Amino acid sequence: MRKDSSFIANGLWPVHSQSPASHLADRHQYDIGEGSLATALTAFANQTGIYLSSASDLLLGKNTQGYQGTVSGLEALNALLEGTGLTFRETDSGNIIIQDSLSEDTLTFSPLLVEANRSPQVTHSTIDQDDIDTMAGTTGSMTSLLQNNSSVQYSRSSNLSANAASLRPEEISIHGQASYQNAYLIDGVGTNNDLNPGDNEDTFSNPITPTNLSMLGGSSSQSYYIDPDAISKITVYDVNVPAEYGGFTGGVVDAELLRYQGEDYT
What we know:
Layout: E1 7-8, E2 11-12, H1 20-25, E3 27-32, E4 35-36, H2 37-48, E5 52-53, E6 63-64, E7 67-72, H3 73-81, E8 86-90, E9 96-100, E10 124-128, H4 129-134, E11 152-154, E12 172-174, E13 183-186, E14 189-190, E15 203-204, E16 215-216, E17 231-237, E18 252-257
Parallel strand pairs: 5-9, 13-18
Antiparallel strand pairs: 1-2, 2-5, 3-7, 4-6, 8-9, 10-17, 11-12, 13-14, 15-16, 17-18
């Protein structure tokens, strides 16, 4: 004999000896009017004897269109919940739980805290005296020491045989800018050449005439030609250049000369 059930604040608990699964498959004559969803589910539970439970605030303010007809409990329950944003699931113990449709087949994890340290961006590269010593005899100017720097490009004429005997240092470009758009410093002092630095190519003419010399020496982006043996360190800034530097659109080549170390040689 089936006992009555009622909707309580925290859910629906009808008392019946059969399992809820068998009740969902049973067919019943339903005459549940539209209106409060809580009231409709109470009527459904009384007719089927199915255990229903729900959070107390989940049904507040929700209405149903009701249902009339002879169908299975599964069809009737789906019809009552249609348009409410709610659904149901069966627990391992055989109870039916009314829940938000968004929570169906979802998992809730505890908060996960992710911590990370931002690696500082490399803004410069440095060639120290040990590096310079390993290149001894293969370089003849300050800029020729920068051949292993991927941000530095050399002019197309830098390797021509006509320039082999030139004392003028190689012209370099940093990030595609003209050679004279770089800032050159020696011990913190700017050494850029301001006398037509863009005309940095030698020109040849034949034959030699009093008014036309055979070779006219071009200008240079650097005012001073420093022997690499006199340099202790070169720092090249190509991105995120410190604010202490200025007057350039390419990069910065900052050289430091050797200092007296207190040793005398005779």
